User: Fold these one by one.
Assistant:
Number 1:
Amino acid sequence: MAQSRILVVDDEPEVLSLMRRGLAYAGYSVDAVETGEEALNVALTHHPDAVILDLMLPGIDGLEVCRRLRAGDATLPIMMLTARGRVPDRVAGLDAGADDYLVKPFALDELLARVRALLRRTTVAETSTLRFTDLVLDSATRRVERNGRLVDLTPKEFDLLDYLMRHANQVLSRELIFTRVWGSEFLGDSNLIDVHVMRLREKLEAQGEQRLIHTIRGVGYSLREA
C-alpha cells in the first residue's frame, strides 16, 4: 500500500525539521515548505493526503492558504498549527476550513495521533464506488465495469485505475503515479507505468470504447474524456 503524503508548512526551520523527521520516521512521505506560496504550488502538483499548516507565514498567510486549499478540495484534511491559542484565533482557523487545530509548543506524539485521526476520517468518508462516464469501479469488491461489461484487471492494474479515477481530469506525473500506486520513489527509467497503462487501455477499450486514459506528453497521464 502506498504511503500517505503529508504537506508540512512552517516558517520556523527547527519546527519544520522536527515535523519532517517525525512524520518520515512514522512512515509518511513528507513535503516540507516554509511559505504559503510554496505550499499552494506543492499541493497542486503533489496532491497531499493531509496538510499541517502554520497560521503565521510570510507572504500568503496560513488562513488564506487554508481557504484556497479548501476551495480546491472539500475533503482534504487540514490541521492548523500555531503559537496563537486564543479562542478567536482557533475559530478563525476552523472557519477558514481547517479540520483540526494544534497549539505550539506541541508534543510530537500528539501531532502524529492527530494526523492518524485525520487520515482515518478521510478513509471512512471515501466512497467505495467511483464512476466516470460509462466506467464503474467498486473498491470494496474490486470490480470494474465498462458500459455494463465486466473488466478483468490484475491487482496493480486495479490500483492504478482506482488512483486515476479518484483524480479524474487532473494531470498526474509519472513520478507521482509511481509513488502513490507502487509505494516507492520513482527511479526515472522504469517502464512499469507505461506497461500497466497500455494493458489498462487494451482491456478498457476491448469493444471499441473511447479512450479515457490519455498521455500528456512530457508529463504523465490523465483520465478524461477525449
Number 2:
Amino acid sequence: MKDIGDKLREARENMGISISEVCTDLNVKERQVLDIEAGNMEAFKDVFYLKYFIRDYAKYLGLNKEDLVDEFNEYLFDYTSKLSLEEIKKAQKEEKKDKLENKIKSPYTIERKRGFYIPPVIIYVLIGLLIILLLFLIIISL
C-alpha cells in the first residue's frame, strides 16, 4: 500500500499540484489524501471507498488507474490472506456489536418489553363489577 501512496505522491509533486488543490478538485478531505499517500489503509473504514479513491486519484493525476487498482487488489489479497480466523471472528463480533449500538431508536421502532398483560375485556368486566358494587353500597346506605 505504501508503494501505491508513493506513486500517487510522486506524480502529484512532479505535476506541482498541492494537496489543497487535490482536495478541492476531488472533493475530499486533506487527511484522506495524506493517509493514502502515506499508505495508511487503516484510516479508511471501507475498502471499496479506498479502492475508488485510488482509482479517482490516479485518473486525476493522469496515471493508469487500472494498474493502480490491480496493484491495490493484489495488496488487499495479500493483506487479507495473512489474517487469522480469530481476528476475522473478533472483527465480526465487533461489527455486530456496533450495529446493535448504532441501531436507530425512534418511538416507532423501539421494542418495548411488556410486563404483565391484562386483556381489555377483563378490565371492562372489573370496572363493571366495581360500578355494581358501588351502586349496591349506595342503595344499602339509604
Number 3:
Amino acid sequence: MLDIKFIRQNPKKVKEGCRKKQVKVDIDRLLELDERHRKLLQEIEFLRAEKNKASEKIAKAKGKEKIKLINEMKEVDAKTDHLEPGLKKVEGEFNKLMLQVPNMPLDEVPVGKDESENKVVRVVGEKPKFNFKPKNYMGIAEKLDLIDTKRAAKVSGTRFGYLKNEAALLELALIKLAFDTLTKEGFIPVIPPVMLNEKAMRAMGYLERGKQEVYQTKQDSLYLAGTSEQSIGPMHMDEIFSEKDLPRRYAAFSTCFRREAGSYGKDTKGILRVHQFDKVEMFSFTKPEESKKEHQFLLSMEEKLVQALKIPYQVVQMCTGDLGNPAANKIDIECWMPGQGKYRETHSTSNCTDFQARRLNVRFKSTEGLKYVHTLNGTAVAIGRLLIAIIENYQQKDGSVRIPEALRPYLGGLEVIKPR
C-alpha cells in the first residue's frame, strides 16, 4: 500500500506509475474520497468533542439548565448518527481503491508493456556442446523413470507429476544445497505454513491483481500459498524490529500452489508449469536505504546457486508492464534449456520497498523514530525447473544424465543416473 500523503503530494507520478504498470485505478476518485473522508471525520470528531463538553456540564447542572443541556446533547447525537453511515461508506470505497493502487516502479526499471520488452542484462556461462541432438527433458526423464505425469493425471489431473527415484533424491539434494549456502550467509531456515488467512494474503498484495492464480479453501476461508514469501512476510505482522536486527533474512522451504489460470495452452506437458511445486525462497526485511543493495545481494545468491550447478543462464531486468502489484523492481534468471533451445525462467527476485510493510504494519526503531521496513524476496531453488535444467544440460548420448558435482555429496557420491 502506498502512503496516502505521497499520493496527495504526487498524483501525477502515481498516475504515471499506474500507467507504466498497465494498471487502471481512478486516482482522482481516490483523492476525492480522501478529502471527503477527512472532512467527515473532522466534523464527527468536532461533534464528539462537543458531546464530551456537554457531558461535563450536565454532570454539574441542575433543573431546567440540565434538561436544556441534555436536549442539546441529543441534537449532537442525531447529527453524529447522520454523518457516521456516510463516513463508513466513504471509508469502504476509499480502502477498496487504496488496495488497488500498485507499488510504484523504481526509476531504473525500463518502461515496457509486457514480458516481450524485458531487457537481458548479461549472459553467464557457456552452453554445453553435444555430439548429438539434445532431447527435451520429458523424453529423458520418462525413460529413466524420474518423472511420471501420466499416473499423476489419473490421480490429480493435468499439470501434476510424480518425481521418482533419483529425481526425488535430487530434490532433497537441491534443498540441502540451498540451505547450506544460505545459512552460511545468515539466513534463518524456516518451514512455514502454506495455508494463509485472507488478512495475511491480502496484506502481501496478491488478491487485488492475480487472485485468479490463487487456490482458496472456501469452507475454511484459507488461501494456499503460491510462494513462501506470502507466508513469511505476515510472520512479523504488527511487529517492530530493532534497527540492529536488520536485515532479517529467511530461507523458507515449502510446497507452493498456483492455478496457472493465465497459461492456457502453455507448457501443458511435463513439470515446467504445474499447479503444485516445491521451492526454497529467500525473504528479507531491511532498512529503506539498504533495499537496493539487498536486492542485488539476493540476486547474487541466486547466481551463486546456479553457478554451483554449472548451468548457463541469463539475467533479465523486468520492464514496468511485467511487474506485479507489490514489486517496485524485479529481476529474473533464465537458465539455458538445450532440449528446448531457449532460456526459461527459473529464478526471480523482487524489491517491494515499503508496499507490503505498510499493509502488514511492520516497522523498525530508527534514530528518527518508527519507520516502515522494506521487504524483498527471491527464489533460491524452484525444484521442478532446476530439475529440468539439470536433465537437459547434463544429458548424455546413451540416455543417462550426469549429476552436477555440487550435488554429488548429497547423493552418496552418485555421478550418473543410468538407464534401467
Number 4:
Amino acid sequence: MSDAALETRALSMSFGALRVANAIDFRLEPGARHALIGPNGAGKTTFVNLVTGALHPSGGRILMGGADVTGLAQAERVKRGLVRTFQITTLFRGLTVLENVTLAVAERIGVAGGIVRPAGRRRAVIEEAYALLDRLGIADDALRLVKELAYGRQRMVEIAVALGLKPKVLLLDEPAAGVPSGESGTIIDLIEGLPADISILIIEHDMDLVFRLARRITVLVQGAVLVEGAPAEIASDPRVRQVYLGEREHA
C-alpha cells in the first residue's frame, strides 16, 4: 500500500476528562475527494485543528506522505503542502484580490516581506498570482477590493489564496458556509475543477455538496469514526440516518 497523502493513527485529544478525539484512524489517499461529516459537536473542527497543528494531540500520530508531522508547527505543515481554508474568510478585505493571492505566492517562495511595496519588483510572483485567478475564472475581479465582492466570490478568492501556496493536501472547511444558494453552484464547479493531484478533504454540513463532490465519506460522532465508505454506502447506512440525519429506527 502506498503512503497516504494524510493519515492519522489513534489520534486522540482530551480537555481534562472530556475526550474530544478518540483514537481516530483516518487515511486520505493521494488525489482523494473525501468528505468529513457529522452532527454538531462531533469533533470535526477539533480533528482539523489537530491535523493542521492548531492543537497538539494527547496521543497518536499525524503523517503526510508517510512522514511523521505530529510535532511540527502549523507553518511547517503549510510548507509541506498542508493548507486549510476556514468557515469564515480570512482574507485581507482592504487589499485587492490580486494582492491577496500575490501575498500567498510570495509567502510560499519566501519573499513576502518585500512584496507589497513596491510590487513591481516581484513581477514573476504577480504574474503567477494573476494566472491562477485566470485559471479559476475570477481574473475579472483581480483589481477589485475583496470587501467589494459578494460573499460567494470571496470564498472563491480564499480558495485561490490556498492554491497560491501549492497545497498537496487541501482542507476545505465548509466552503459553502454563508454562501447564498444561488451562488453555491459556482463554488462546487470551482472545487470540481481543482487539479486532480491535490488531495482534498471537505468538512461540510451541506449534504448536496458532499454527495456531489466526495468519492469517499467519513462520519465522525462524539470524537470517533462511526463509519467510512462510498457515498452510496453512507446514504443507506441506518446508523448515519439515526445520528446524523435525525431519523430513528423503529422496532
